[in-house]
Amino acid sequence: MISYNKLWHQIIDKNLKKTDLCAKSGISSSTLAKLSKNESVSIDVLERICDALNCDIGDIMSFRERDGNKNA
User: Fold this and answer.
1) Mean pLDDT across 42-63
2) Is the predicted pLDDT of residue 61 greater than 60, yes or no?
3) 23, 37, 39, 45: which has the fewest C-beta neighbours closer than 10 Å?
4) How many whole angstroms separate alpha carbon 51 and alpha carbon 45?
């Protein structure tokens, strides 16, 4: 399962708001909503976010075990 908790920490650390992220990276509010729900987004979106925040993909997302399914 994907987690974007690291992204929200990056935004806080850089003193930004979610709307600032949209403006800097060119992502839409619907994409932001997907990120807020830990849903999948395209690699292009993740790349634009990394460019905007000047970071690597591992700095904004991680994978975690699905509840009750260690092999997923």
Assistant:
1) 96
2) yes
3) 37
4) 10
CB 49 within 8 A of CB 25: yes
Q: How far apart are CA 7 and CA 16, in angstroms?
A: 11
Residue 65 — very low, low, confident or very high, per pLDDT cuts 50/70/90? confident
Domain with residue 8: its CATH number is 1.10.260.40
Global pTM reads 0.85
| Contact of 60 with 50, CB cutoff 8 Å | yes
Q: What is the pLDDT of residue 70?
A: 54
Residue where the block lists tokens 């650390």: 13
Establish if 51 belongs to a structural domain.
yes
Q: Is residue 22 part of a domain?
A: yes
